[in-house]
């Protein structure tokens, strides 16, 4: 869904503008969606994409009910702790949660090996 994708990008831009008010707080709970994809970049704050929050750039497969096309896009990550043990180029599964100010990655796991 292109509209939702645009909204996610806009939210990143907006929250970057209001960076001072954004505390880095871990989000908990069940993901609203699960996705698969490849990690392109993991950016600790401050980065070009966000002043105070960690960002992960994923090349993701379609996420049923959320984004029906594969695409490359940035997501805010709940914590830099999610980046531990992960590497760029790695195939992963991830959990997404919709919170008031973002579509947030709340979990990242190495994907099972493809055969
Ligand atoms: Cu997307």
Give an overview in words.
The protein has a single domain, classed as Copper binding periplasmic protein CusF (OB fold (Dihydrolipoamide Acetyltransferase, E2P)), CATH 2.40.50.320. The protein is built from one helix and five strands. A hairpin with a 2-residue loop joins strand 4 and strand 5. The chain has a five-stranded mixed β-barrel with strand order 1-2-3-5-4. Helices cover 14% and strands 37% of the residues. The chain is mainly beta and 115 residues long. It has one helix at residues 2-17; strands at residues 33-43, 55-60, 71-77, 91-99, 102-110. Residues 16-25 have low confidence and may be disordered. The structure holds copper (II) ion (CU). Residues 5, 60, 67, 71, 73 line the site of copper (II) ion.
Low-confidence segments? 16-25
Strand percent estimate: 35-45%
Mean pLDDT equals: 85
The number of distinct structural domains comes to 1
Radius of gyration: 13 Å
* Distance linking N and C termini: 30 Å
Quote the CATH topology: OB fold (Dihydrolipoamide Acetyltransferase, E2P)
Features:
115 residues; mainly beta; 5-stranded mixed beta barrel; binds copper (II) ion
Structure in a nutshell:
This protein is mostly beta strands and 115 residues long.
